[in-house]
Automatic annotation (TrEMBL):
Protein name: NAD-dependent epimerase/dehydratase family protein
Key words of the record: NAD, Oxidoreductase
Family the UniProt entry places it in: Belongs to the NAD(P)-dependent epimerase/dehydratase family.
Organism whose genome encodes this protein: Cohnella yongneupensis
Residue ranges of every copy of the NAD-dependent epimerase/dehydratase domain listed in the record: 4-212
């Protein structure tokens, strides 16, 4: 692969992914509704709801990274969020299939598990949470991510396309760490104290694109530690006492959402922690 198309290239993660791709020698086409002054690659304005736009925009690419989406169930109406996210993912995968592109990475989210945005908090079935945990969203955004993953799996079955769906944790830039508030240990309970540094998110995205694992895979992309000074076992006992099943050790401040599968499949390791910036 020499040329990669990135949807949502002007977005928070998109810019970092494009810069990482360029550092590794790739030619990049950014597809977005807006331009970014930070990008030095070709930028194409597209409506991802229009399949023809997408086909035209990614033509010439040998791989696709799809990051464009409404990133939370806020600001927009629920039907609009669901329709936007689902149809954009479908059109990107359909366009890639029509053009014979063999590798696509799609941005999913840990919100697919349902904990982050549920109006009524609920506990995980077991800890640490891995990719086999049931997906139980109570709102439109998490549901849209599940449908996106299922769409990716369908295109793999239909075409043999390799599709990696990355369930990114809350993404932090180096400047974001100054705003962390760890005094209340329960502050990040609904997101399982999970996060990922944007630089590690970018390298995981590149590793997914370059992988030759084949098939469809949904992977948690999270840091090795938690957004808390407490040890993980203490967090679990204090905030999720009803979750007694353990499918892995919660030693020290190890992540409550497991990234073991991404590490094993991709040969990827997160390098950054919020502790380096405090």
């Amino acid at each position: 692969m020499k040329t990669i198309a990135v949807t949502g290239g002007s977005g928070k993660l998109g810019v970092w992914v494009i810069e990482e791709l360029q550092r590794q020698g790739y030619t990049v086409i950014s597809l977005d509704e807006k331009r970014s002054d930070r990008l030095s690659c070709k930028q194409v304005k597209v409506e991802l709801s229009n399949l023809g736009h997408v086909v035209s925009g990614i033509q010439g690419a040998e791989g696709v990274v799809h990051l464009a989406a409404i990133p939370a169930p806020i600001i927009y109406t629920h039907d609009y969020i669901f329709d936007n996210n689902v149809m954009a993912t479908y059109n990107v995968l359909e366009a890639a299939a029509l053009l014979g592109i063999k590798k696509v990475v799609i941005g999913s989210s840990e919100s697919a598990y349902g904990f982050a945005w549920s109006p009524k908090p609920f506990a995980p079935n077991y800890l640490p949470v891995d990719e086999d945990h049931p997906l139980l969203p109570h709102e439109c955004y998490g549901l849209s991510k599940i449908v996106g993953e299922q769409t990716g799996a369908m295109f793999h079955r239909r075409t043999g396309m390799q599709v990696m769906a990355l369930r990114y944790s809350t993404i932090y830039t180096p400047n974001d760490y100054a705003g962390l508030s760890l005094a209340d240990a329960g502050r990040y309970k609904k997101t399982m104290w999970s996060y990922i540094d944007i630089r590690d998110a970018a390298t995981a995205t590149l590793a997914s694109l370059e992988s030759d694992a084949g098939g469809f895979h949904a992977l948690n992309i999270t840091a090795d530690d938690t957004l808390s000074d407490w040890e993980s076992a203490r967090l679990a006992e204090q905030y999720y006492p009803e979750t007694t099943e353990r499918r892995g050790a919660l030693e020290g401040r190890t992540a409550v959402v497991s990234n073991a599968r991404a590490k094993a499949l991709l040969g990827w390791e997160p390098k950054y922690s919020w502790q380096q910036f405090k």
